[in-house]
C-alpha cells in the first residue's frame, strides 16, 4: 500500500465516495496538498483529507477506506503518515473530530488523541473534538 498526494486523476474516485465535500472543492484541496490517496497496485482504495482549524492547526476531516480493505490497519497507517508530515512541517499539534455515536472516537483515542471539547448542533449527535501533541 502506498500513501501519496491525490492528483486530478483522483477527482472522480473521491467525488463518488465523499458526500461531505462538494465536487467543485476537490481540485482546490488537491492543489493545496490536503488530500492523501491510499493505493494498492496503483488502484485507489481510500483517502484522507484535512484542512486547518483556526487557520493554524492541521485538522483531519475524513478518512475513507473502501470496504474490502477495511480492518487491515490502513486507517492507522494514513493517520500516522499525516502526523509525521505535519510534524516535519513544524506543527506541534493536530486535531480531528467525530460524532459521539461513531466508533471512530475509540480509534483516535488508541492513537493518542484526547478529548478537548465538543460541539452540539441542533438535530445532530454531539461532535467530539480531539487533539494530539506530536
From TrEMBL:
Keywords: Acyltransferase, Transferase. This is GNAT family N-acetyltransferase. Residues 1-134 form the N-acetyltransferase domain. It comes from the Bacteria. Pfam families: Acetyltransf_1. Transmembrane segments: none annotated. It comes from Paenibacillus rhizolycopersici.
Amino acid at each position: 500500500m502506498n500513501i501519496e498526494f491525490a492528483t486530478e486523476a483522483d477527482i472522480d474516485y473521491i467525488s463518488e465516495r465523499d458526500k461531505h465535500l462538494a465536487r467543485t472543492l476537490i481540485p482546490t484541496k488537491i492543489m493545496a496538498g490536503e488530500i492523501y490517496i491510499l493505493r494498492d497496485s496503483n488502484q485507489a482504495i481510500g483517502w484522507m483529507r484535512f484542512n486547518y482549524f483556526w487557520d493554524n492547526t492541521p485538522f483531519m476531516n475524513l478518512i475513507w477506506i473502501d470496504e474490502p480493505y477495511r480492518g487491515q490497519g490502513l486507517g492507522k497507517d494514513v493517520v500516522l503518515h499525516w502526523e509525521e508530515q505535519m510534524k516535519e512541517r513544524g506543527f506541534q499539534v493536530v486535531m480531528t473530530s467525530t460524532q459521539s455515536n461513531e466508533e471512530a472516537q475509540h480509534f483516535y483515542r488508541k492513537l493518542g488523541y484526547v478529548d478537548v471539547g465538543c460541539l452540539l448542533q441542533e438535530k445532530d449527535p454531539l461532535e467530539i473534538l480531539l487533539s494530539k501533541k506530536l
